[in-house]
């Protein structure tokens, strides 16, 4: 990370573009394995696998910075609860009772949720140019989800899964805002390792209850292993690392704007891997989202809350 220290904003923005790409794949996987892997099992074993992957790299930093972790463990626990434990577990649970398009629609409201919470909790005001960017990007997102017709948007139906997804978005919004307020002075890899470890520990008893009394778990096979590996590495380790770095360097509200890219990436992935048609509204909506991102990120960024890499 040292060679990127001179360009932390460039690295942050690259990571924030990749995060919705990985999350779009996460939504596709969640819908694809809904009949093979129970949502709580998918969430738990995703993080167990992620922890096993990251631990050899992060354990040294955890030992070296243990004194700081011991003094701030409660902060990491709170952040892990809203992110690792809650967000994806709720998303996977929502995927069992609602459609992918509804998940994309609700997930894309993260920028609005984060901007509101950043104002309420941090007093972070949205500039006029940023407000314009939010409006333009929101229009692009609705264009993609509505497939270019108002009737499709009006005709969307909502279910219990949608309410669960709203809760997931709220959880991620709280995490994004608190990430700056409850910043912990440790290296990024150390923080991510502890975030995953504590979040998985909180999720473990929830998984055990579900395993014993409800879902009964799943069978590890050639069908179920690849999705687990994907959600552990890409929307798990990499997306969380990129998001943490982006929020700490450019702020929660600006970082959240990149979530408008999720339905665009989802449409492209469906086109590439599922053979679904890529319509004009995907291209037009994606263009509007990029314009909105340009408006939102053109102002001087918020000063980082803490140093994240050395």
UniProtKB/TrEMBL annotation:
The keyword Transferase does not apply. Pfam families: EamA. It comes from the Bacteria. PANTHER family: EAMA DOMAIN-CONTAINING PROTEIN, INNER MEMBRANE TRANSPORTER. InterPro entries: AA-Vitamin_Transporters, EamA_dom, EmrE-like. It comes from Marinobacter segnicrescens. It is found in: Membrane. The lineage of its organism: Bacteria, Pseudomonadati, Pseudomonadota, Gammaproteobacteria, Pseudomonadales. This is Threonine/homoserine efflux transporter RhtA.
């Amino acid at each position: 990370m040292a060679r990127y220290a001179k360009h932390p904003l460039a690295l942050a923005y690259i990571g924030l573009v990749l995060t919705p790409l990985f999350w779009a794949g996460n939504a596709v996987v969640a819908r694809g394995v809904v009949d093979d892997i129970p949502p709580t099992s998918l969430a738990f074993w995703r993080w167990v696998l992620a922890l096993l992957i990251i631990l050899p790299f992060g354990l040294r930093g955890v030992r070296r910075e243990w004194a700081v972790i011991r003094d701030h463990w409660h902060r990491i626990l709170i952040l892990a609860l809203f992110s690792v434990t809650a967000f994806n577990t709720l998303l996977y649970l929502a995927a069992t009772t609602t459609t992918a398009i509804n998940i994309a629609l609700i997930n894309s409201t993260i920028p609005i949720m984060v901007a509101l919470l950043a104002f309420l909790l941090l007093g972070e005001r949205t500039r006029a140019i940023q407000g314009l960017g939010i409006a333009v990007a929101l229009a692009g997102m609705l264009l993609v989800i509505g497939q270019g017709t108002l009737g499709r948007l009006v005709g969307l139906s909502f279910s219990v899964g949608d309410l669960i997804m709203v809760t997931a978005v709220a959880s991620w919004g709280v995490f994004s805002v608190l990430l700056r307020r409850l910043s912990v002075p440790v290296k990024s890899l150390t923080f991510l390792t502890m975030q995953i470890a504590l979040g998985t520990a909180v999720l473990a008893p929830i998984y055990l209850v579900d395993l014993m009394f409800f879902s009964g778990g799943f069978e590890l096979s050639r069908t179920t292993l690849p999705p687990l590996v994907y959600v552990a590495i890409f929307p798990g380790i990499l997306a969380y690392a990129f998001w943490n770095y982006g929020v700490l360097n450019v702020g929660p509200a600006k970082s959240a704007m990149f979530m408008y890219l999720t339905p665009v990436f989802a449409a492209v992935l469906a086109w590439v891997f599922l053979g679904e048609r890529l319509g004009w509204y995907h291209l037009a909506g994606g263009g509007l989202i990029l314009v909105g991102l340009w408006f939102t990120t053109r102002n001087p960024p918020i000063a980082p809350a803490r140093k994240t890499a050395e």
